[in-house]
Amino acid sequence: MRFLFLVYRDFKNPNAVGGDFYLWELARGLAKLGNKVTLLCSSFQGAKSSEIIEGVEINRINSVWRLPLRIFNEYLKKLKGNFNVIVEEAIGGQRLPYLSTMYVKEPLVAVWHQRHNKVFREQYPLPIAILLSLFEFFQARLYRNRTIVTPSEGAKEKLMSLGFKYEKLKVVYDGVDSIFDSPETKSARENVLVYLGKLRRYKRPDHAILALVQVLKRAKKPCKLIIAGKASEIDRGYIDWLRNLAERLNVGDLVEFRINISEKEKLKLLEKARLLVQPSPVEGFSIVVAEANRCGTPVVASDGVPRDVVINGLNGLVYRFGDIDALAMNIVRLIDDDVLWDKMSKDAHQWSQQFTWENSVAEFLKVLIQTGHEE
Asked: Residue 198: which of 362, 20, 8, 12 has the closest Cα?
C-alpha cells in the first residue's frame, strides 16, 4: 500500500520531540513491511530537501508560517491521487494546523496526541489559552467524521469530550526503542531524581524543583535533581527562569541542567536515576515513562499521565497534578524505602515490555487498512 504522512518535523530535525518520533517510527515500520511511505514535513538548517531513509521518502518544505499553504499546493500539484491513505498530524508542535481534511480526497487518518486545553492553560496567558481551546473544538468538528489515532486509552477518553465519535477513535500505543532494554542493577543507582522531556513552561519542570525543597527536608538520604531534555531558542528564557528559581530556593547546587541531550545520554541518566519525575498536566502517552520503566526506573507521575501508562503502585506512584506536597511525599517514599523501590523497579521493567514498535506498527496498519476500506 501507499501512505503519505503530513507531519511537522521528521526525526532528524534538531527540535524533534516525542510526537515526532512516534510518527517516524510508525512510518518506517510501515516501510519495513514493504509499503511505500512518503513523509512531507518542514525543513531545518542544513537539511536536504529530500532523501530516502530506511525506505521512507522524506520531502522537506523550507517554510514555517506558510507551511500549511505549501503542503496544500504540493498535494494538489504532485501528490493527489497517488496514495491509498493519508496520515496527518492534526494538531501539535509550534505551527499552524494543516487542516487537510478540507481538501484531501483520499481516506484520512488524523493523529491527535492529546486534548490540548490544559497545555494551552499552562503555557499561555488566559485569553490566548481560551482562544486556542476554542479553535481546538472547531478543528475537532472538522475532523469528527475522520478516523482519529491517539496513543493511549486515557487520551482517547479525553478526546471524546471534543465530540469525536467513539468508534472513530483508535488507540495505537508508543513503543520503546531497543536501546532501553537492559535495566541496571540497584548497586549502580544514585539518589538522583530526573525530569526528562520538553523544557517548556506547560510541562511544569518547576514543580520538580519546588518538590526538591521539601524532599531535602523529609528524606533520610541526600539527593539531587537533573532536569534534562529538548529546548529550542524560544525556550531559553524559561530555562533561565528555572535556574533562577532553583537559586532563589537555595537548591541551585543540587539542580543540574542538561540541554538537548542524545538518546545515549538519556539512557545513561535513566539507568543511574533512582526515579523519574513526570509533573506534566496532560500527556497523550509519555514515552519517557515507558523508557524509564524499561530501564527498571520507577516514576512519580501526575494524574495527567494516562492511567493505562502509569498504574499507581505498580510501575510508579501517581499524585494529583499541581499538588507539590504529594509529589514530594511520593519521591521520599521511593528514595527511603528500598523494599518498595526493588519491587516497583522489577514491576516497571515487566510492565514496559508490552510497549513495542512491532506491536504499534501492526496495530496502526490495521487501522489504515480499515480506514481505506471504509472511506
From this structure: 20
Q: With b meaning 16 or more CB within 10 Å and e meaning fewer, what string describes 217-245?
A: eebeeebbbbbbbbbeeebeebbeebeeb
Closest alpha carbon to 22 in 148, 157, 173? 173
> What's phi and psi for 274, nearest 5 deg?
-75, -35
Is the domain 2-175+356-374 a CATH 3.40.1190.20 member? no
- 188: part of which helix (H) or strand (E)? none
| Alpha-carbon span 290 to 348, nearest angstrom | 8
Q: Tens digit of pLDDT for each residue in 113-161? A: 999 999 999 999 999 999 999 999 999 999 999 999 999 999 999 999 9
The three cell numbers locating residue 99: 487542516
Q: From CA 50, how far away is CA 204, in angstroms rounded? A: 36
CATH number of the domain located at residue range(s) 178-354 in this protein: 3.40.50.2000
What is the C-alpha separation between 191 and 41, in angstroms, rounded? 41
